[in-house]
Amino acid sequence: MAVATLVVSLAVVFLTGLASLRFTLAEIETRADANLAVQTAVLERLLDKFRLLSPLLARGPETGRMVAGEGTEFDRNIVSVTAGMSGAEEIWLMDPGGRTLLSSRDNVPSGAIGGGSMIPDAFYQATQGQLGRELIPGTPEVPASYVFASPLRSGNELAGVLAVRVSLGDVEQAWALSKDPIVAVDGKGRVVVSNVPNWRNKGFASLDLTRNAADLTLLDRLALLLPTAGQRPVHMELAASLPVLGWQVRTFADVESARRQSGWAMLIALLVCVIAAGVLWLIAFRRRELDRQIRRDKAAALRLERRVKARTAELRTANRQLEQEVSERLQAEADLRQMQAELVQAAKLATLGRMSAALSHEYNQPLAAIRSDAEIAEMLIDRGRADEAKGNLTRIGGMVSRMAEIAKTLKGFTRKSGTDIKPVSLRQVVDEAMLLLQPQIKQTKVDLVIDLPEENLIVGGGRIRLEQVVINLLANALDAVSTEAQPTVCLTLEQVGGKAVMSVRDNGTGISEDVLPQIFDPFFTTKDVGAGLGLGLSIAYKIVHDFSGSLSADNHEDGGAVFTMSLPLADETLLAAE
Ligand code: ADP
Question: Is 532 in the pocket of ligand 1 (CB under 6 A)?
């Protein structure tokens, strides 16, 4: 990816460079071409002008006179003026032998230098009746001259030769304005005119010229685009020919500017490439990020799905287990209920058994006594001793009333749970119970401690029935302490939270562990036959529960039994109703 981008960028940069080079080179060529045409025209015009001057002068009448040997100071003046006005460097006359007769220059004596020997070719051509031409090569210091020579005729005779020398320095001055080197090369390959003075009169081939841009191969062009140090500058050579003279004018346009421009173009292309690569990279990066995000999301979703599945499976298993457990529980509950029913049945039967035993005992004894008493009374009456039978009858009456008493107790147990709940003062209940128990208390000489609170505790219930509970608890306590040396019974009443709590404690032997669970069962008793029916605590328990209270039995840590009765205090509505 990076390599491809690099290769493409390089290709783009170099292609841009090459294209730019092509355009700028073409531009330079056009410009140099125009310049060359102008500069060539300058040279051409100059030579054209003087080409006509020598024949013109040769035909003039004054010239004839001069040739005839009548040369005077006046003639010299004419020549000088002509030279000065035309701009020719020098005009001179030669005799057919080649000796100078007259020169526009002051310092040239007659017959001296500058004669035909100086311009052998032109002189010869002129003697042949043609327009002679010859170049006088220049030096680095002196520009070259061009000479036109025309024959002077006197009738058909050759009278002499007139030569006009033109300095090419003017052309060089005009060319000097051009920044590119320009040279005129003659047919022999020698530099004739140049705006580089050092090149004058040198062989064109020997010039220290840089390479021609026109000859560059593609590789050379590529090398041109590289900013290598020491790279030789390259020029663009353009040529125009002067057919009359057989010369060629050449110019060497500098292509450095093209190089520079191409360099800039490449730089811009490089920048564009860098930016494009950056943008591409950014897009690729974003895409990769996006892909990664999508993959991550997918993975997360998959993980979640898997977890949900696992969780669902777990839940299903748990559900199944739960269902199983529920069914097991239901089964256990059913079993329990079954067992409970059986137990209740057994308890009922046991209670019934205990009741039958107690009742049959309670009733059989007096019934047997009543029967024997009745028999005795009958016997006595038969024998006419009715008075004696009276005692038996009285005993029978006593036993019947005892049996009625037992029946009455049983009735209390069967009484329906009370619905008439009224506010009851516990203080009153305790006082009345004490009053009713007074004969027994006196008999036993027990130390009875009553601890009642300042405030009157009011509970909801029935006064008579609550009295029955208190009497029962106290009676049991009195029974339990009957054999003690220092019999003590404590009754305390207090308020605990929203409840009235009454406890009856004695210092008897307490309740044995195996008796404790069944102490509230009906007909359960540890007392001798005839001493107790075993109904007192069970009735008390029933009464307290009817009034939403609770009754519990326990052993005190210091010995003796503690019975605790707890009843909710009467609320506002109940008190207001009263
Ligand atoms: P009963 O008094 O006719 O036996 P209860 O229901 O009143 O019937 O009492 C049942 C049994 O609870 C008693 O036989 C006795 O064994 C036991 N009991 C009751 N109160 C006390 C107490 N204060 N101390 C020891 N045992 C008690």
Answer: yes
